[in-house]
């Protein structure tokens, strides 16, 4: 399970285009930010403070990276210079290595081996070999002069190191190149074209000795193309899913964060701001998302030390993420509409066809639920998204439909609906309780008449609210999870709920008796100190009333307990000794005087 944490600003930027890139630092909690053409700063994630910085008179043309092999920082200057330095050095005083051919960047090897040099012509070699042959002219070029490199990654397949990168030409056509670092080994290239749609995002991933190219197209289709060690027959490869969480009209930045997760950063589907999502490739659902108010083109996204870094406006934003063990609860209600159902003739009458939850949804919720379900939201998340709008509109019918349809109702939603039902504007619930109390003083035959009269006096809206209260009280919940939410409910609302629950103990309702007792215990525990410190007569009256009802229930149980021995004897076929007249015979004869 992947989850995004709270985003925070790491550092300001000159502008989005001047940011050359970020890189992994020697210290795990730090990141190297090449802010501009002359400035490099190391930041610490924990406190967002600057650790060290460098500046140069010459122009940087590649991001600064850290080489584990020689414990030095390196970067390309003016497209034809390579410099390597330590933390204490000054950039203008370190040695400059002049190259005959233009350079693109330095690719570090995080495994500790030597770094690699990627030339602008697409040629790849080790750092050591590049320094030895820096004054020579390259003959085996991969790219044309008009082509330029977009993304690159170092992958390892069956012990062989390769550099995979994508290039673009004057017509904005994308080509995937796979170049081995071994001199003389053949390279491969694949043209990234498909039908009449345009490419809006792509990413490279190395997974279990295999390499994949993920492509996102302007119709929202996400494909996976395997190019190592074997090559898929048809491009763009295997169709994964439709991505609707990002706007496919604008470019999207994609980067892998694990073997089964991709991060997407692009324009929001509502065309308001930007969005960052984490997509689970195994279950094909969006597991976490974060919205930003501003979308900057082109989108920039990096993955460094369990942090996703995005450029938003003139700021570099850091978003921590966590990868945990997948839990089945996060998948409940996400793929119900795509599960195939096979009907058997001998069970045809008992089979209920599985239908999507939005099929019979109210008109005002149908479109939103359908969109959330297509994006892979579980039932709990869907309810959390639609509940605020329902409560704002005071739509009781929609609330009843949600409680009837959704099998996974979060505890937070349960408390929010209770607050809505027992707000000050819903005085009819208290009137209903008073009517129930008055019925206890009447006879059994008059009680039904009184109840019918009371029900007729309530309007349709109040009757629906009454059903809503009983429905929400009947929902299953975890007392540990619901207690923090109950403590935040106003005390006046809690008193109304307590008064209503005490009435339910005395009279029959659709709420199970055990559930009523559970709610009473929770309501008393959540505001225990306020009950003790309160001197309000209303509080004392409610607690006294509840105490009397509990004592009455206990007395009833004591009376039933006295009958237990007699019931056991009758169950075992034994005749009680008190019934002496029936103790010596199995029958009796009585004479009745009729006239």
Automatic annotation (TrEMBL):
It is found in: Nucleus, Nucleolus. Its main location: nucleus. The keyword Transcription applies. One of its GO terms (cellular component) is nucleolus. Residues 1-321 form the Nucleolar protein 11 N-terminal domain. It comes from the Eukaryota. Keywords: Activator, Nucleus, rRNA processing, Transcription, Transcription regulation. Residues 369-595 form the Nucleolar protein 11 C-terminal domain. The keyword rRNA processing applies. One of its GO terms (biological process) is maturation of SSU-rRNA. GO terms for molecular function: RNA binding. It holds the Pfam family NOL11_N. This is Nucleolar protein 11. It comes from Gryllus longicercus.
């Amino acid at each position: 399970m992947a989850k995004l944490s709270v985003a925070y600003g790491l550092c300001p930027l000159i502008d989005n285009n001047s940011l050359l890139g970020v890189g992994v630092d020697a210290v795990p909690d730090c990141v190297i930010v090449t802010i501009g053409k002359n400035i490099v700063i190391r930041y610490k994630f924990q406190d967002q403070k600057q650790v060290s910085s460098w500046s140069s008179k010459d122009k940087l043309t590649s991001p600064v990276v850290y080489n584990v092999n020689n414990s030095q920082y390196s970067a390309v200057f003016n497209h034809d210079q390579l410099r390597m330095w330590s933390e204490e050095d000054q950039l203008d005083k370190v040695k400059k290595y002049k190259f005959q051919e233009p350079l693109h960047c330095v690719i570090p090897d995080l495994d500790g081996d030597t770094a690699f040099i990627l030339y602008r012509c697409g040629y790849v070699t080790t750092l050591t070999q590049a320094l030895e042959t820096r004054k020579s002219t390259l003959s085996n070029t991969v790219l044309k002069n008009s082509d330029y490199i977009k993304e690159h990654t170092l992958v390892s397949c069956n012990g062989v190191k390769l550099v995979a990168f994508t290039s673009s030409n004057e017509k904005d056509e994308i080509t995937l190149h796979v170049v081995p670092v071994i001199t003389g080994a053949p390279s491969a290239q694949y043209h990234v074209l498909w039908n009449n749609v345009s490419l809006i995002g792509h990413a490279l991933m190395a997974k279990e000795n295999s390499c994949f190219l993920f492509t996102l197209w302007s119709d929202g289709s996400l494909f996976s193309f395997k190019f190592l060690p074997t090559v898929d027959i048809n491009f763009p490869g295997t169709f994964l899913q439709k991505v609707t969480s990002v706007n496919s009209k604008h470019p999207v930045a994609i980067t892998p964060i694990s073997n089964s997760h991709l991060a997407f950063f692009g324009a929001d589907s509502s065309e308001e701001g930007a969005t960052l999502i984490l997509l689970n490739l195994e279950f094909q659902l969006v597991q976490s998302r974060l919205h930003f108010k501003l979308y900057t083109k082109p989108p920039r996204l990096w993955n460094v030390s369990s942090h996703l870094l995005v450029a938003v406006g003139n700021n570099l934003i850091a978003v921590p993420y966590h990868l945990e063990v997948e839990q089945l609860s996060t998948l409940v209600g996400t793929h119900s509409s795509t599960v195939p159902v096979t009907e058997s003739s001998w069970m045809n009458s008992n089979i209920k066809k599985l239908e999507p939850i939005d099929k019979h949804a109210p008109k005002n919720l149908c479109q939103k639920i359908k969109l959330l379900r297509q994006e892979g939201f579980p039932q709990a998340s869907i309810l959390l998204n639609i509940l605020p709008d329902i409560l704002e509109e005071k739509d009781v019918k929609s609330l009843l439909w949600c409680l009837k349809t959704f099998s996974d109702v979060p505890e937070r939603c349960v408390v929010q609906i209770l607050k809505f039902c027992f707000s000050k504007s819903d005085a009819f619930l208290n009137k209903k309780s008073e009517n129930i109390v008055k019925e206890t003083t009447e006879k059994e035959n008059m009680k039904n008449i009184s109840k019918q009269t009371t029900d007729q006096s309530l309007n349709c809206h109040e009757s629906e609210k009454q059903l809503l209260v009983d429905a929400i009280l009947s929902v299953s919940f975890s007392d540990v999870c619901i207690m923090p939410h109950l403590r935040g409910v106003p005390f006046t609302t809690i008193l109304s709920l307590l008064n209503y629950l005490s009435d339910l103990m005395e009279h029959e309702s659709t709420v199970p008796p055990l559930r009523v007792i559970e709610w009473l215990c929770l309501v008393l525990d959540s505001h225990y100190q306020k009950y003790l410190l309160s001197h309000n007569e209303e509080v004392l009256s409610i607690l006294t009333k509840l105490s009397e009802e509990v004592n009455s229930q206990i007395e009833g149980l004591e009376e039933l307990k006295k009958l237990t021995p007699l019931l056991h004897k009758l169950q075992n076929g034994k005749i009680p000794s008190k019934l002496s007249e029936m103790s010596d015979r199995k029958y009796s004869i009585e004479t009745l005087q009729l006239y």
